[in-house]
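User: Fold both of these, please.

Assistant: Here is the first one.
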Amino acid sequence: MLCGTKEEIIAQGIVSREDYEQLEAYTRAIFQRGTEIAAKMGLILVDTKYEFGKKEGKIYLMDEIHTPDSSRYFYAEGYEERLAAGEKQKQLSKEFVREWLMANGFQGQEGQQVPDMTPEIVDSITERYIELYENIVGEKFVKGEEGDVLARIEKNITECLAKL
C-alpha cells in the first residue's frame, strides 16, 4: 500500500511520476464509475481501495473492487437527514464484523485469537452479506448447492464474463 503524499511516493521511487499520474487517472475513473453504479442502486460509494500491479511495463487492476470488503457504502435514502442530525449513517460494508471483533477483544494484533462466533453471530453476518449483495448487485441472492464449489464458482464466473 502506498503511503505518503504524491511527491513523497515519487521521491521514494515507489512509482515513477508517469505511473503515479496513470494510477491517479485510473483510480478517478474507476471511482466515478463505481459512484454512478452505486447511485443507481440507491447507495453512495463512500470510500474504497484499489490494488494495482505492473507487469511488463503495463499497469493492471488487481483484486476485488467495490465489494463490501474493499469499500464502504451508505444508503442514499435518509443520508441528508442523518448527516444534519449528526447521526451515524446506515452503511453497507464489513464494518459490522470489525466492530463485533473489537467489542469481543480482537484487534488483529500478533498473538491474538479470533473469538469464537456463535451460530447466531454467523447467521447475522450471513444475513448482512446477503443484504450487501442484493443492494449492490441488484439481484435476489440465491444460495447455491453445497456440492462442487469449484465447479459452481467457475460456472458463475463464466456466466458473469459473458454478460460483460
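And the second sequence with its predicted structure:
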Amino acid sequence: MPGKEEHLAFELPVLPYDLDALEPWMSKRTLELHHGRHHAGYVKKLNGLIEDTPWESKALAEIVCGAYGDDANQGLFNNAAQDWNHSFFWQSMTPDGGGDPAGDLAARLAKDFGSVDDFRTAFKTAAAGLFGSGWTWLVDDGGTLKITTTADAVTPIVDGQRPLLTLDVWEHAYYVDYQNDRAGFIDAFLEHLVNWSFAADNLGS
C-alpha cells in the first residue's frame, strides 16, 4: 500500500557464542533444537500474529506488556513473551561462566539473601520446585533483589520488575542433556554457565 510504513519483522537473535561453546554443560544439539527450532518458532508465529495489525509498530516489550492479561491476545502474548524470555536467557549464559559474582552485584546478593551461597540455595530451590514449565529469575524489585518464578511464558517485566538473569526450566531446555534431572541442569547453570557480567550490567542499567 503506498505510503504505508514498512514493518521490519522481528528476527531470531544471533547467539552470543558458538553452538558448541557451552559444552559439556549444554550441548550443541540442545542449542540447535532450543534456539534454532523452539525460539525460531515463537518468532515466526509472532510475526504472523502482528502482521497488518496495530501491534506491528510496537517494540517487543510493548507487545508483551500490552497483550498480558488480555484473553483475546493470549496467543500474541505467549509468542512475544517467549521471544523476549529466550533472548534474555541466551545472554544469561556464557562459556566459562559460573563461579562467584563480584563488585556491587555480590554485595547486593549478600545484603538481600544473606550471602552468595544463600542466594544459590534459594535459586536452586525455586527452580527445582517450579511445577511444570516456566522460568526462574533474579530480579530487582524496587531496589531489592528477589528470586521469582513464572509459569509458561510469563515474564517479570509485566509486573514492573527488572530482570537480571533467568533460567529456562521448560523441559525442552534440558531434556536432551539431562533427561529428567532438572536439579543437575540447575547446578550446571549456576556452577558453569551463569553470566554474572550480564546480571551486573542489568543491575547497573
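The CA atoms of residues 113 and 121 lie 10 Å apart.
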